[in-house]
Amino acid sequence: PPKSNINPRETFQHPMLDNQRSRVARIFPGIHYAWIIIAIAGFMHMAGGSVRQAFGVLIVPLQQDMGWSPASISLGYALASIVGAVLAPLSGMATDRFGPRKVMIAGIFFFFGGAIITGAASEVWHLWISYGIFLGVAQACFSVPILTAANTWFRTRLGFGVGLLQAAHGLGPAIMAVFLSALIAALTWKTAFWLIGVSGSIAMIGLMLFFRNDPSHVGLRPYGTPSNEKAPKKANPDEARQRAKVFLMSMQKTNAFWQLVVVHFFGCVGHAIVIIYVIPIAVVAGVNVVSAAGILSTLMGVSVLTRFLTPVVADYLGAKRAMATMFVLQGLPVLMLFWTHELWQFYLFAVIFGVGYGGEGSAFPIINRQYFGRGPMGRSFGWQQAGAGTGMAVGAWIGGVFYVMSGSYDITIILSVAMSLTGAAVILTMPTTARLLIPNWEDALSPNLQPGTTRPVGTGG
Could you tell me what percent of the chain has a pLDDT over 70? Predict the structure, then answer.
């Protein structure tokens, strides 16, 4: 990552911070701590979200081993998405109030409990509790704080930082799909979840020792802060809550705020159907389970490229056009599944679909910055994650229902295409990202909370 030496112009001058600042400089010489935060957050995305995203690997083994139907199995994933959606706004509130670190630590404990209980499941309703509730809570505790932390640590190069973060989010499931499939084949699905729960939780707890909520906690400014800008006054908890409340109210008065929630819903319905059902679709076509897992892994692996590139492009050229393009590229390739029957055809589909899938959701932090500027983003990301989680739940559950009703995945495939293209249409109706929508939101604060900092400008068209 780009380097930025720690120097007085980028730091807060306070004696109590000298020890922390020098300790950071010794451990990570020449690297701005923002990039360390991105690395930690990226691993959290990989470890915490990969089990959930690779859920499609579980459907066939659970069908064969436990005799459960695809609809009843996928209900566990749907419940996890619903729980994550319902709790996402609350996670945003908790993040703004207590900081990302405490919320993520809570998520680690739910991740551990969910994985261990899943490994002990003997009835399908056990899966609904362990996967649906425990891992759903964990998802809410990871997704919102991670995005909020990235937004806090970067003044410039946010697109690059978010790109790295989103690339990790795609790489994790790509690795996990193959790894989990191999573990299940070599051991059992129960043992696989116990191993993942223990090892993943230990690794994440270790990383939390190095995580910091805000640059000021280690005596730094956000990456790219102008040298002539005054250091913001550190707000007490009551002041922070007031700022977050006023910022949220200002955002919610815009149509764009609610459109982003709706867009996230449509996009997630579109790709949830694919990532959950592409393996069962391939197995129905005669592909063996391990090879079918490689389809999901390929899809996720290809998505890493556009997960990284889309935020970077959106940061420089504007997020609106970049996002609309990726929604179309996510939707249209799904039509290939009507004519896909051979293994190589499924892998070709995975490569083409992965391009649009990777870019579909990765620019949301960028368009938020371009529309709303630099404010307490936890609640905003929480509402959008609620839309995303609801979409994932609908896509995951309804595919199994249509299969039971019709005996095929044809209706499900059509729904996936329609949802992605509808999301693209909504994006095209949204305002330009060339100007902020709420440039004067701080005017609603009480006079003692109105900083004299430079407000950011929008980007692109």
Answer: 84
Domain with 15 in it: what CATH number? 1.20.1250.20
Is residue 242 in a domain? yes
For residues 211-250, one letter each, b for 16 or more C-beta atoms within 10 angstroms of the residue's C-beta and e for the rest, the string is bbbbbbbbbbbbbbbeeeeeeeeeeeeeebeebbbbbbeb
Instruction: Round to whole Å and give the CA distance between 298 and 300.
Output: 5
Count structural domains, the chain.
1
Its domain, for residue 214, covers 9-223+237-449
**Domain annotation covers residue 108:** yes
CA–CA separation, 155 vs 160, rounded Å? 11
Q: Which burial class, exposed, middle or buried, applies to 325 when counting CB atoms under 10 A from its CB (0-12, 13-18, 19+)? A: middle
Q: Does the structure show a pLDDT above 60 at 406? A: yes
455 located within any domain: no
- Whether residue 418 has pLDDT greater than 90: yes
Q: Residue 403 corresponds to which tokens in the numbers above?
A: 């299969």
Q: What is the value of pTM for the model shown? A: 0.73
Q: Is residue 456 part of a domain?
A: no
CA 411 to mean position of chain CA atoms: 27
Q: Tell whether the model's pLDDT for residue 350 goes beyond 50.
A: yes
Q: Does the pLDDT at position 19 exceed 60?
A: no
Q: Are 37 and 18 in contact (CB under 8 A)?
A: no
Angle between helices 33-53 and 189-208 (to 10 degrees): 160
Q: What is the pLDDT of residues 84-100, one digit of tens each?
A: 888 888 888 888 888 88
Q: Nearest-CA neighbor of 236 among 91, 15, 449?
A: 449
Residue 417 CA to chain centroid, in angstroms?
A: 22
User: Are 424 and 324 a contacting pair, CB within 8 Å?
Assistant: yes
Q: Kindly state the tokens that stand for 322.
A: 């970049």
